[in-house]
Amino acid sequence: QVQLVESGGGLVQAGGSLRLSCAVSGRTFSSHVMGWFRQGPGKEREYVAALTWSGTITNYADSVKGRFTISKDAKNTVYLQMNSLKPEDRAVYYCAAAPSYGRIWYKPDFDSWGQGTQVTVSS
Questions:
Q1: What gap in Å lies between CA 118 and CA 90, rounded to an integer?
Q2: How far apart are CA 30 and CA 52, in angstroms?
Q3: Nearest-CA neighbor of 102 among 45, 52, 48?
Q4: Nearest one of 118, 111, 85, 89 to 33, comparing CA atoms
Q5: I need a surface site. Which of 11, 44, 82, 89 has the fewest CB within 10 A?
Q6: CB of 59 within 8 A of CB of 34?
Q7: What is the mean pLDDT of residues 12-25?
Q8: Residue 46: pLDDT above 90?
């Protein structure tokens, strides 16, 4: 497992932007898949986006496609750039890591999770 620490959450008005960061430490592999999930109040945790460790392949939930971008830098920090935020994007956002691809690559067994960062969008 790797260690994940999220940051960057906060309060933003609808239509605004935030960038979440996830610092990854520990032993990583080229087969790692990184993901972002979120859990809104009274809701189950849901998938947001995923990225291969190389950073070359991404996948997004339909609800965020075209508004959110997942990326990674050379210092092993994974980002989630969130634009055109809506009140329904309000949630605790979690970074996750899986050591290998799933049968559907972006649906692996994520075995490392961060502590979460709160995003609140006011209308």
A1: 8
A2: 8
A3: 52
A4: 111
A5: 44
A6: no
A7: 98
A8: yes
User: pLDDT tier at 29 (50, 70, 90 boundaries)?
Assistant: confident
Over residues 62-105, the pLDDT tens digits come to 999 999 999 999 999 999 999 999 999 999 999 999 999 889 99
> How far apart, in whole angstroms, are the C-alpha atoms of residue 5 and residue 7?
7
DSSP the chain: --EEEEE--EEEETT--EEEEEEEES---TT-EEEEEEE-TTS--EEEEEEETTS--EEE-TTTTTTEEEEE-TTSEEEEEE-S--GGG-EEEEEEEESS--SSTTS----EE---EEEEEE-
Distance CA 32, CA 14 (A): 33
The Cα 60–Cα 123 span in angstroms is: 24
What tokens were used for 44?
């189950």
78, amino acid identity? V
